[in-house]
Amino acid sequence: MPLKISRVLIDDRLREVRALLSFIKVYESKETPPKDAEEVKIIRGMFYVHLYGALEQSLNDAVTSFLQAVADLGPKNRELALHFLPTAMNSQFKSLSDERTDKKWKRRVDFVNSIQSDEACRIENSVFAIHLQSSSTETLAQVASYLGVSSSPLLLNPDRHYIDEVVAKRHQVAHGRANPSTIGARGRAAELELRLDAVGRTVDLFIGLLENHFQLYAFLNPDGYARLAMTNLPDAA
Hints:
Elements: H1 8-27, H2 38-73, H3 85-88, H4 90-98, H5 104-115, H6 137-146, H7 152-155, H8 160-174, H9 180-184, H10 189-215, H11 222-230
């Protein structure tokens, strides 16, 4: 049972960003050297905010879809691969750190027992929403590793520089550390298009990693794989 993460909303977001880029192209100066109006510079600076929003929400959609698909399979705690436990049992990990001192040891014993139990896994599909509020390459690699996915393709992504630049400039504008006109004064529509294309490719790369991870059922241990292959996953041979 392969996972196919929907790209409908993702494509819609990127189309809107491209529509803004087309607007910028129309109103950019055609002179040599160019003499862009202040409003054009401001819009180019705000372009990074728009593009970053599409990036962050698309990544959130992908992770949420992946975790919901895993939850829908109904795996038991004892069937999960070790590297997936920190994510799948997030609520239990939080309760350990929040527990009073006099109850911590009992909670630890209960936690270890729950790992080996037949209890249905309770996966929070929005667990990484806070992490992805700053979707730098390093953050993407970390989230991938928490899901048990190899982070190497993300860290070696040739578009990494563009992604981190989009994140940095969005934060500068959104948090008031730089005016949109200052950011937009450096780089014309052709340069912005390179960043837009890089975001699209990076989102596709991330989604591909999640879909492949799901198809391999790499979040399960051998016992979990064997059971689910016979029940929920009849075509997993």
